[in-house]
User: Which sequence fits this backbone?
């Protein structure tokens, strides 16, 4: 068993590596540029949303309370479509989001370190550390992505890209931990 205090460096460095890699993935590489489309009359939609004065949050349209799911009027709305899920936010603070993402990367590193510290001894082979930390961090970075396609109708192509990103981040995390695992 390895003490968690011996793993602070791989936790921190893996978070830094993932943060840098995710910045390159989203700001330099082109494959995420097609994840979101533009509405045909975006300005009119935005004006209509502003007129609603909706607070920041997640909305589903048409909204269906559980007791109304068998109501003929609700069924007609759902059949008529469109059906949508909308996230509204007022402003966007890139710095705040980047800090939150880095903290999330640290948290994933802490959980991966915890599991590895409970199951692996000091001095184990690189590949043993890589497998355990890689699996743990892959589940954390990519495991929930398919639920957005299953329940929120996100395009599967977008989800596959996010799962690929999660694999990349997991490989980086596993590599750092394998490299810096205590002897």
Assistant:
């Amino acid at each position: 068993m390895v003490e968690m205090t011996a793993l602070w460096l791989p936790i921190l460095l893996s978070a830094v590596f993932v943060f840098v890699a995710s910045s390159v993935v989203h700001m330099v590489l082109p494959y995420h540029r097609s994840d979101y489309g533009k509405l045909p009359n975006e300005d009119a939609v935005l004006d209509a949303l502003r007129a609603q004065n909706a607070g920041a949050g997640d909305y589903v349209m048409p909204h269906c309370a559980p007791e109304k799911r068998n109501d003929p009027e609700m069924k007609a709305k759902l059949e008529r479509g469109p059906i949508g899920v909308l996230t509204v936010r007022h402003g966007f603070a890139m710095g705040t989001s980047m800090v939150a993402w880095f903290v999330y990367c640290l948290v994933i590193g802490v959980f991966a370190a915890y599991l590895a510290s409970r199951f692996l001894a000091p001095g184990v082979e690189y590949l043993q550390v890589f497998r355990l930390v890689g699996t743990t961090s892959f589940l954390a970075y990519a495991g929930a992505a398919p639920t957005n396609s299953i329940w929120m109708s996100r395009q599967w192509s977008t989800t596959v890209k996010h799962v690929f990103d999660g694999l990349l981040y997991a490989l980086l995390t596993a590599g750092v931990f394998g490299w810096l695992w205590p002897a």
Notes: The CA atoms of residues 68 and 159 lie 31 Å apart. Residues 4-36+92-180 form one domain.
